[in-house]
Amino acid sequence: MIDRLVEKIRETGAPIVVGLDPMLNYIPEHVRRKAFAEYGETLEGAAEAIWQFNKEIVDKTCDLIPAVKPQIAMYEQFGVPGITAFKRTVDYCREKGLVVIGDVKRGDIGSTSAAYAAGHLGRVQVGGRSYVPFGEDFVTVNPYLGSDGVKPFIDVCKEEKKGLFILVKTSNPSSGEFQDRKIDGRPLYELVGEKVAAWGEDCMGEEYSYIGAVVGATYPEIGKAMRKIMPKSFILVPGYGAQGGKGKDLVHFFNEDGLGAIVNSSRGIIAAYKQEKYAAFGAEAFGDASRAAVEDMTADIADALGNR
After folding, report:
1. Residue 307 phi, psi dihedral angles, 5° rounding
2. Quick check: is 96 catalytic?
3. What pLDDT digit, counting tens, does each position of 42-63 carry?
């Protein structure tokens, strides 16, 4: 699957992943109104609004981008209907030819970790039949329970040719409370990065490993260090746009070949119509505003990479 991601990035010229993290207040009133008219102000109504919102954004951007990243919490909060909307979104994005990164941040051990891996990346056996429950192409994994929590995911990845993005240095302000702690004089995130690189050596695609890492755009100098530690690992870079990251902050996350990283923007794209820059589109054309935001983000990153 990493080879397909690389191929899609080359095709589009856009090392971008759109975070499909739909809060209800991101969804224009006319979309919510239509969903509530059919299902009422219920969990089912909220899930329908999310699905229709996602579908429009995907339809307007799928030819420009290689991948999407639905954050499962935004769906789980609406219970079973929300999970159904998550599954519909995953399936639709794959129909559109997009790589799907399930942002699930799972982290557990033993049979529990194996069950998460089977549910999101693999298959489950029910009697004499095998089923694909969610069917993402990659998922995010929390490694802070150690190898016991990661190995079941790696096993499924090898079997299914899927991939992982393992949390190394996250973009949130308090990440340093643990991730920056020094062990033998080195920050913990560096040690985790070394483990990611080691896990990845046994899981190589044509050019890159399908065991990647998450490193926040808000820490460009750390990105520079991690790029050296993990030369064959793709880095998923959250924190662009709404969290302060810009194209110029991202150059060190990429290798000299212009590959090696994929940059996430969530509300900066899906709620672009709410920004002053794209306000002229209006809420009715929110999908067109998202398309313009993708084009601007692509140009910003390309300019930064071209001038490094």
Report:
1. -110, 10
2. no
3. 999 999 999 999 999 999 999 9
Task: Give the Cα separation of 206 and 13 in Å (integer).
Answer: 19
3-state secondary structure 208-245: CEEEEEEECCCCHHHHHHHHHHCCCEEEEECCECCCCE
Residue 188: which CATH number? 3.20.20.70
Range of the domain at 11: 2-306
Report if pTM > 0.90: yes
Residue 99: partners with Cβ closer than 8 Å, 6 or more residues away: 1, 4, 5, 8, 66, 67, 68, 137, 138
CA distance 20 to 16: 13
- Work out how many domains the chain is built from and give that number: 1
* Single-letter amino acid, residue 248: K
Structural Rg of the chain based on CA atoms: 19
Residue corresponding to tokens 């460009």: 220
The set of residues, in sequence order, having a beta carbon less than 8 Å from that of 138 and lying 6+ positions away, is 1, 5, 99, 100, 101, 102, 121, 162, 163, 164, 165, 210, 212
Q: Give the SS3 label for residue 138.
A: strand
Which of 96, 105, 151, 161 is flagged as catalytic? 105
Kindly report, residue by residue over 211-233, the tens digit of the pLDDT: 999 999 888 889 889 999 999 99
Residues whose CB falls within 8 Å of the CB of residue 5, separated by 6 or more in sequence, listed in order: 66, 67, 99, 137, 138, 163, 234, 262
| Torsion region of 214: left, alpha or beta (phi above 0 gives left; psi -120 to 50 gives alpha) | beta
Q: What's the rounded Cα separation, in Å, for the pair 284 and 185?
A: 54
